[in-house]
User: Which sequence fits this backbone?
């Protein structure tokens, strides 16, 4: 059996080539590219949210009548004490600084505004806020100074009133507070606003909308522009009363009936515009033919002929009781009243509402929401990245293109930039918060682009089973032949008797003889 | 009040808004509003409110009891200012009669002119004469789209065009999104706007250029889902005025129908539009439909066809007839019908929005009677044109005792037909026959776009005079100039354009050959054996009169593979590889032994032997 060893070697080499070259080559050639995503880092960011964030807001304190050289230090102690009284889900603090007029004026010239607290001597104790600036006025009287209550009072005003939004979201509640989620749209920096005048019939109508919008809505847009940019269109739609005429025959109408009957399908303007989300204002007038006596379910008062309703995540519906005469022009007066109500509701639709008692200026509220939105955006994009990680881990055969990795890296870079702005106490002006918000919007956008990457989501990947099924006709025969062959080859050495008969033990001899006796050798059977 | 916490803050905000913009005190204005409630909130315009919208319906009997109905709707958009920033705080877009679903798309894609056609059916030009609107409002069978797009480069313009196609696809529920590089052409001689060299078309950015692009989807089915979006583009939404006649069930149950949309950009002052001048879109929408009146009337009578009774049969009296035998008479020449029979609906009310009232005109000869039915009364006019002025139900009633006499149809300057020649799956030919029945030579432009898998041999282009003066004409005499862009596989279709003159009273045939390419496996459509639709040849007559016509679409058969082939290939090649491997492996690893030795080896390996051994071991162990 001189060839046996060579044959064995050949078998082994076949197996080695199969295992060492064949399988890795097959795996490599049929494998897909999976970019290495920074899983551990994202997991840390996800598990310990905002562990590296400490929002610091500088507040300048000034006193008009008395000079308190150490008021900022004393107030700082009280503020810290108050803030520490609650567990914060995102670290935040106020840095009370002494008012430096030249610095503030210089900064103001460059468009940077800071929070300022003005201490004003008065006959009573109280606080107030300006409408148009980030200025809080604290009134105090002499006994307060005598009792040294002023620092505490300043701290309380600041934390519980001026920074009420932060106090609500960051200290006592949940950052991703969902109180208004059912009504408010998801935050996006660009929102399209469609203002529709709907009429149940086809008689012509005109409205003084341009005048109303420029005098009333333009300042509102400017005011909200750091948070939300609106693009606005108006349209007149005939022969559409949102199917409200169908309620005319019913006697008892509940509000649920209205919400069931209403048909908003023709008003979805999302399709035509490039903005991510859209809000609507629909002013509905009934048809003169189908509803000559108007909508019975609208209750009117002397000075109000319409009712308005918020449709969650869609917009506001203004339903008029009576139909319009043909060739009517809707005056600016009417539209002003509608827009006043609409502007109120818009805050709710944008999720900009708080528990605050309404004593503080909208400027301060919007400023606070810039920070909250920034933090929420950061949270949102980290959640998105974490979902991406989970997705890629769940689908092992899904390709992860390089672009996804680049996007993820960009998101993480932007996050660090934002954290730097938030943590830096010397950057607490308007423009810094605007920048942080813009960056956070970019962060959300990039994280969503990474998650919804076309190459990844096209599902053009083979599951492992599919791959095996395709290659089985090739792999199956080769594997079976190869391995059964090698096994047989090695068995052969164990069982092949030595050629010399002497080496056969007496037991073996006996066995063979007995076998022959019982005729177990098939060859013999066949011969017989 | 539910929103009370923020209301006060907002009151302050609103106060701010008023302080910023006007000196008027909000409280005061509120009081004023409530005081002058009745006078101030709504006021009625004495002269009426009018929007730039017009609608006209023209009905015209054609020979052999056919009826052509042409609907025309025209509307203008509100002005817009190209120089204005889209994101300015003062920017507000207003939409009144112009569709909101189109304008943002047009503005985003910088479209200056847009033409969209949905056509289906056969226009019998030998019987019915010229196409409506001189053929300029009809398309080839299927969907056709062409547009002038402003762009800084060809690629940018193409991207906008693609975005336009995708947008229109969604708006019209049609497969327009299938228009891609391989289907888009840049016409050179045809489709040039009336404004020569694009001079009249506004260019919002001086450094940009205008690009004309054309694409068509041959024989794309046209159905109700395309009509409904078209109706929603109209301010009346198909609920009043003449558009209330349009109903998918009846409209598509016709011999030929055509829906067209044409939009163009106009600017008030052409010198200033780039610098905040005022521009607007003009849109014209046409729906033309040819119906065979007797068959529609009989279908109205018997929705399910059944044999007529003996008394209803009209036998041809010139031939023998009796109780058992009847040759049906030629078509009746007596007819009376109303538009509600043809369209299934009345006209519900007038359109109040426009400068002019909705108008219906019947173009009939003296032997026809056309009257308008207002509620229950019938009224006629001298010129057979009716204006709808009130909000009532209208209908048009028409009758004639001799329908063979209609207003004479206009002569068609040219007839053209195109057909496939050759056989087999690897090559074929195209042959186009032009017939000029007039006494004047006709100068025309020829525009043909062929898919890349038809590889044209332009060298085989040949001309043949089949009728008329056969002497003295060569291809070069007929074809004045030609433009040809060869195709690139999967990227560009081939485009063939000629300016040619067809001599008077003659018929010529133009033919050339092509090869059929093989497609990739994945490029075949789901119904590959149906064949591939080839878009119409478009002929635009330049002289003596402007006219446009299209030939029918063609169906090319390509060699179609057996689609189980890849699986078979995998199976067979795997089997062969397995066989080769097994043999090779055996050759290398197996040894040859004499029979005796093999028997011995086999002896120790057999199951019987092993069983005996086992038995023996058991026996010896228990010591029996």
Assistant:
């Amino acid at each position: 059996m001189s060839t046996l060893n060579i044959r064995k070697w050949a078998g082994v080499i076949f197996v080695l080539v199969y295992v060492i070259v064949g399988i890795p080559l097959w795996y490599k050639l049929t494998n897909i590219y999976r970019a290495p995503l920074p899983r551990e880092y994202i997991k840390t960011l996800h598990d310990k949210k905002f562990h590296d964030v400490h929002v610091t807001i500088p507040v300048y304190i000034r006193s008009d009548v008395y000079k308190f050289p150490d008021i900022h230090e004393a107030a700082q102690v009280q503020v810290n004490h108050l803030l520490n009284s609650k567990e914060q889900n995102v670290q935040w603090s106020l840095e009370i600084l002494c008012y430096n007029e030249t610095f503030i004026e210089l900064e103001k010239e460059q468009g940077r505004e800071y929070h300022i607290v003005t201490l004003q001597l008065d006959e009573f104790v109280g606080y107030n806020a300006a409408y148009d600036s980030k200025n809080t006025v604290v009134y105090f009287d002499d006994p307060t100074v005598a009792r040294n209550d002023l620092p505490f009072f300043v701290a309380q005003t600041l934390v519980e009133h001026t920074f009420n939004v932060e106090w609500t979201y960051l200290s006592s509640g949940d950052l991703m507070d969902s109180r208004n989620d059912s009504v408010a749209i998801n935050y996006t920096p660009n929102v399209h606003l469609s203002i529709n005048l709907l009429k149940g019939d086809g008689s012509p109508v005109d409205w003084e909308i341009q005048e109303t919008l420029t005098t009333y809505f333009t300042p509102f847009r400017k005011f909200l522009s750091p948070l939300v940019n609106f693009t606005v269109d108006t349209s007149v739609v005939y022969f559409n009363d949102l199917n409200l005429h169908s309620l005319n025959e019913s006697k008892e109408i509940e509000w649920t009936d209205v919400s069931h009957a209403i048909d908003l399908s023709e008003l979805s303007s999302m399709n035509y515009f490039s903005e991510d989300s859209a809000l609507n204002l629909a002013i509905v007038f009934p048809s003169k033919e189908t509803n000559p006596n108007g909508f019975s379910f609208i209750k009117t008062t002397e000075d109000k002929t319409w009712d308005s309703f918020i449709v969650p995540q869609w917009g506001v519906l203004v339903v008029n009781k009576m139909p319009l005469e043909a060739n009517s022009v809707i005056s600016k007066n009417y539209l002003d009243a509608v827009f006043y109500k609409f502007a109120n509701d818009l805050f709710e639709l944008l999720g900009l509402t708080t528990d605050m008692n309404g004593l503080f200026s909208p400027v301060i509220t919007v400023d606070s929401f810039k920070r909250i939105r920034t933090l929420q955006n950061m949270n949102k994009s980290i959640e998105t990245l974490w979902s991406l990680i989970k997705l890629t881990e769940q689908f092992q055969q899904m390709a992860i293109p390089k672009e996804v990795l680049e996007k993820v890296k960009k998101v993480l870079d932007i996050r660090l930039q934002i954290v730097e702005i938030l943590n830096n106490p010397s950057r607490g002006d308007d423009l810094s918060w605007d920048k942080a918000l813009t960056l956070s919007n970019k962060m959300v956008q990039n994280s969503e682009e990474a998650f919804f990457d076309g190459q990844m989501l096209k599902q053009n990947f083979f599951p492992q089973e599919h791959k095996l099924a395709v290659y089985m006709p090739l792999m199956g025969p080769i594997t079976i032949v190869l391995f059964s062959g090698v096994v047989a080859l090695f068995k052969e050495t164990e069982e092949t008797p030595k050629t010399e008969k002497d080496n056969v033990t007496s037991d073996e001899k006996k066995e063979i003889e007995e076998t022959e006796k019982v005729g177990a050798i098939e060859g013999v059977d066949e011969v017989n | 009040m539910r929103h009370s916490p923020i209301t006060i803050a907002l009151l302050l905000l609103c106060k701010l808004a008023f302080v910023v913009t006007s000196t008027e005190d909000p409280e005061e204005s509120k009081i004023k509003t409530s005081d002058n409630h009745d006078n101030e909130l709504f006021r009625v315009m004495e002269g009426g409110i009018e929007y730039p919208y017009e609608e006209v319906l023209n009905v015209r009997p054609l020979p052999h009891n056919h009826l052509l109905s042409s609907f025309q709707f025209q509307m203008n958009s509100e002005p817009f200012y190209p120089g204005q920033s889209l994101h300015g705080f003062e920017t507000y877009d207003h939409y009144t009669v112009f569709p909101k679903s189109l304008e943002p798309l047009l503005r985003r894609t910088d479209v200056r002119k847009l033409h969209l056609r949905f056509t289906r059916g056969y226009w019998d030009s030998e019987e019915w004469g010229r196409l409506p609107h001189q053929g300029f409002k009809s398309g080839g069978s299927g969907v056709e789209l062409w547009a002038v797009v402003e762009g800084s480069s060809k690629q940018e313009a193409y991207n906008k065009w693609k975005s336009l196609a995708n947008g229109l696809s969604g708006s019209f529920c049609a497969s327009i999104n299938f228009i891609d590089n391989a289907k888009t052409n840049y016409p050179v001689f045809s489709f040039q706007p009336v404004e020569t060299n694009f001079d009249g078309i506004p260019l919002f950015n001086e450094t940009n250029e205008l690009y004309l692009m054309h694409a068509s989807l041959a024989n794309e089915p046209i159905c109700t889902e395309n009509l409904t979006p078209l109706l929603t583009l109209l301010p009346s939404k198909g609920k009043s005025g003449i558009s209330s006649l349009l109903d998918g069930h009846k409209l598509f149950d016709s011999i030929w129908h055509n829906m067209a949309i044409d939009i163009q950009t106009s600017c008030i002052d052409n010198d200033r539009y780039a610098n905040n001048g005022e521009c607007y879109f003009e849109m014209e929408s046409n729906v033309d439909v040819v119906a065979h009146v007797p068959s529609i009337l009989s279908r109205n009578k018997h929705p399910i066809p059944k044999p007529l009774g003996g008394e209803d049969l009209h036998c041809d009296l010139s031939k023998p007839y009796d109780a058992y035998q009847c040759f049906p008479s030629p078509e009746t020449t007596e007819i009376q019908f109303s538009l509600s029979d043809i369209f299934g609906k009345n006209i519900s009310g007038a359109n109040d929005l426009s400068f002019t009232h909705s108008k219906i005109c019947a173009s009939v000869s003296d032997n026809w009677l056309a009257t308008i039915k207002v509620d229950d009364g019938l009224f006629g006019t001298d010129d057979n044109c009716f204006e709808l002025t009130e909000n009532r139900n209208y209908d048009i009633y028409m009758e004639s005792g001799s329908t063979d006499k209609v207003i004479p149809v206009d002569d068609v300057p040219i007839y053209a037909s195109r057909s496939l020649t050759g056989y087999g799956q690897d090559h074929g030919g195209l042959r186009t026959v032009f017939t000029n029945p007039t006494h004047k030579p006709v100068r025309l432009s020829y525009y043909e776009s062929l898919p890349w898998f038809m590889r044209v041999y332009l060298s085989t282009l040949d001309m043949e005079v089949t009728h008329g003066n056969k002497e003295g004409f060569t291809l070069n005499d007929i074809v004045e100039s030609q433009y040809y862009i060869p195709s690139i596989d999967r990227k560009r279709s081939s485009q063939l354009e000629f300016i040619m003159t067809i001599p008077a009273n003659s018929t010529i045939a133009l033919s050339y050959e092509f090869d059929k390419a093989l497609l990739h496996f994945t490029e075949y459509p789901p119904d590959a054996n149906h064949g591939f639709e080839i878009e119409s040849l478009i002929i635009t007559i330049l002289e003596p009169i402007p006219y446009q016509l299209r030939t029918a679409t063609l169906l090319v058969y390509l060699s179609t593979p057996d689609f189980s082939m890849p699986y078979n290939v995998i199976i067979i090649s795997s089997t062969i590889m397995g066989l080769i491997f097994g043999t090779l492996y055996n050759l290398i690893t197996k040894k040859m032994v004499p029979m005796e030795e093999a028997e011995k080896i086999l002896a120790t390996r057999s199951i019987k032997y092993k069983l005996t051994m086992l038995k023996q071991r058991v026996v010896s162990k228990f010591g029996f």
